[in-house]
Amino acid sequence: MLDQGGKTQGVNTKAGNPLDWDDFRFVLAIVRGGSVSAAAKQLGVDHATVIRRVDRLEGHLSAKLFDRRKTGYLLTEAGQRVADSAEAMESTIVANQEAVGGSRAHLTGTVRIGAPDGFGSHFLASRLLKFTERYPDLDLQLVATARLFSLSKREADIAISLTMPKEGRVVGRKLLDYSLGLYAAPAYLDRAPAIKGRSDLPGHRFVGYIEELLFTPELDYLPQVSPKISAKFRSANLIAQLNATLAGFGIAVLPHFMATAHPELRPVLPEEITISRTFWLLMHADSKDLARIRAVADYIYETVESERALFSGR
Question: What local confidence, expressed as pLDDT, does residue 123 receive?
Fold first, then answer.
């Protein structure tokens, strides 16, 4: 609330001193910037002001929020609780700002997105520019690799997954179903035996995943195509499989949203063989309502929805 002089007031602590809610911003700035100097730059104040405001908050709360080390400020257990509370307050303020004022929120901090290599590298990476222009002070990290991401261990704030977890404090929503098919380059098809039906496939060379390195069974496509085929070139990375296919190594199961970006690739038995999978957008239950995370999640959902036809191969 504001006093007659227009200054922010807070509740009184046990010591009788008013708690200034604005001090919580300084804790968040250190957490997000990684250092006092980065926090000072972000907030437009000097180094000493950041230290003074954090010291004051620690005094009011009678708790040590950071361990001061040569490598930087490390959150204590109490500090983590305060940082979580500060983010929750920030999200409430942002939501009210947008609802009442209709203006776009000013977001800061970092959001890490974990995604499969194909979706992350081939689709999402090039489409994040508009988001960064919308929120220039929000930093994005994209980890595009074939693996599962632990949201509880904070390996990512948002994860794009091929399955919906059956346990844990994870909240998810379906992004969309996407289609895959068989593709090969002219460099392979022009010198290989003709393919008139599924029964011709065992005589051909395939590109696929390394089975023991599959991070989810949803990627084990080839048995669904035919139990009589196996890959002669294998990689745990979908981009590597795409490049091997483009070079003419053989036939691969590729998502349509990737294959259609390379018109030189030819579909193989498109009427006979089609595979469907689902992308899910996952967030941890404790952070799903944070403004910065919600903004990124909504943007990914809107971007995918606007290009839904791409994922069906049309």
Answer: 97
Q: Using alpha carbons, list the distances in angstroms from residue 30 to 24, 37, 140, 190.
A: 10, 8, 17, 60
Contacts of 19 (CB under 8 A, 6+ apart): 10, 11, 12, 13, 57, 60, 61
Q: For residue 44, give both structure tokens.
A: 């437009």
Q: Could you say which architecture CATH assigns to the domain 178-275?
A: 3-Layer(aba) Sandwich (3.40)
Q: Which CATH architecture has domain 23-101?
A: Orthogonal Bundle (1.10)
Render pLDDT for 153-173 as a digit per residue (tens, 0 to 9): 778 999 999 999 877 789 999
Cα–Cα dist 312/314, whole Å: 6
Q: CA 8, CA 284: separation in Å to the nearest integer?
A: 33
* pLDDT in the model for residue 298: 95
Quote the CA–CA distance of 164 and 293 in Å, as a whole number: 19
Helix residue ranges per DSSP H, 108-172: 117, 129-134
Give the CATH fold of the 109-176+278-312 domain. Answer: D-Maltodextrin-Binding Protein; domain 2 (3.40.190)
Domain boundaries, the chain: 23-101, 109-176+278-312, 178-275
Token pair 């999402």: residue: 124
Q: What's the whole-model pTM score? A: 0.73
- Nearest-angstrom CA–CA distance, 256 and 196: 21
